TrEMBL record:
Pfam families reported for this sequence: DUF4072 (PF13284), HAD (PF12710)
Protein name: Phosphoserine phosphatase
UniProt xrefs under SUPFAM superfamilies: HAD-like
Alphabetic keyword roster: Amino-acid biosynthesis, Hydrolase, Magnesium, Metal-binding, Serine biosynthesis
Active site: D77 (nucleophile), D79 (proton donor)
GO molecular function per UniProt: L-phosphoserine phosphatase activity; magnesium ion binding
One GO term (biological process): L-serine biosynthetic process
Pathways involved: Amino-acid biosynthesis; L-serine biosynthesis; L-serine from 3-phospho-D-glycerate: step 3/3
Domain of life: Bacteria
GO cellular component: cytoplasm
UniProt catalytic activity: O-phospho-L-serine + H2O = L-serine + phosphate; O-phospho-D-serine + H2O = D-serine + phosphate
Cofactor(s) needed for function: Mg(2+)
Length: 280
């Protein structure tokens, strides 16, 4: 196995300590924020995890034979994963309702309430809001997570298709698709009448099962095996989707998601996914 160690600032003594702990054959710089410990013994996994947590480092065990070109599909959540905000919370802020909506969002992301019901509750609070608020959120508040464009460029270079699947809204996914050259997107559609939000969602809600179904639909269309799929998210409604992938990545995620993911990234940006996919 190779041990990937990542962080905004990785002291050399920490790398040497991890190399000693795992009997690694060599330490190889992958990027400014990532190092690969070659031929590391993975038996002391718990000790390595504890050391990295104590020193605010991300770590992940990667089979030495893994190659990024082994994969064919990268599936991503949108809110608080590909982008830094929860769009519905920012839309609600235009109504002066951000605290109420954010509280429901947080409970849903922790898995404490049903996602579809939480979405209906939150969207109902937006009734009467002018549709132009959506464009304001996109223009003024939506930012890509650090490293997002680097990750997507690496995926394209390796021939990996991309699916952005969100419990959020098509207004945002449809604008991000051409901007980021994404291959597929899926999300919920807000009903609009006379230029204002009605407080309702059209059609079936893209919830946890809906995300998993989209992953499998696109995977089947591309004629890929589960072993060729990567999925990443941050909330409880991403867990079913992540369970359908060979590699699941919890990005700045809730504890329930970190506990079930193949890897967790808490210290670095989305470009931290790249070293976990193996050698180029």
């Amino acid at each position: 196995m190779n041990l990937i160690v990542q962080g905004p600032d990785i002291p050399t003594p920490s790398l040497k300590q991890l190399a000693k702990l795992t009997g690694a054959a060599a330490i190889e710089a992958v990027s400014r924020t990532a190092f690969r410990l070659l031929d590391a013994d993975d038996r002391p996994r718990a000790e390595v995890a504890a050391f990295c947590e104590a020193h605010q480092l991300d770590c992940g065990w990667v089979p030495a034979e893994r190659r990024i070109r082994d994969f064919g599909l990268l599936v991503m959540d949108m809110d608080s994963t590909l982008i830094t905000i929860e769009c519905i919370d920012e839309i609600a802020d235009m109504q002066g309702l951000k605290p109420q909506v954010s509280a429901i969002t947080e409970a849903a992301m922790r898995g404490e309430i049903d996602f579809a019901e939480s979405l209906r509750q939150r969207v109902s609070l937006l009734a009467g809001l002018d549709q132009s608020a959506l464009q304001r959120v996109y223009n003024e508040r939506l930012q890509l997570s650090p490293g997002a464009e680097t990750l997507l460029a690496a995926a394209r270079a390796a021939g990996i298709k991309t699916l952005l699947v969100s419990g959020g809204f098509t207004f945002f996914t449809e604008r991000l698709q051409p901007r980021l050259a994404l291959d597929y997107t899926a999300a919920n559609t807000l009903e609009v009448a006379d230029g204002k939000l009605t407080g309702r969602v059209l059609g079936d809600i893209v919830d946890a099962q809906g995300k998993a179904d989209w992953l499998n639909r696109v995977r089947a269309e591309l004629k890929l095996d589960r072993a060729q799929v990567i999925a990443m998210g941050d909330g409880a409604n991403d867990l079913k989707m992540m369970a359908e992938a060979c590699i699941s990545i919890a990005y700045r995620a809730k504890p329930v998601v970190r506990a079930q993911a193949s890897y967790a990234l808490n210290q670095v940006g989305l470009d931290g996914v790249i070293p976990l996919l193996g050698l180029s």
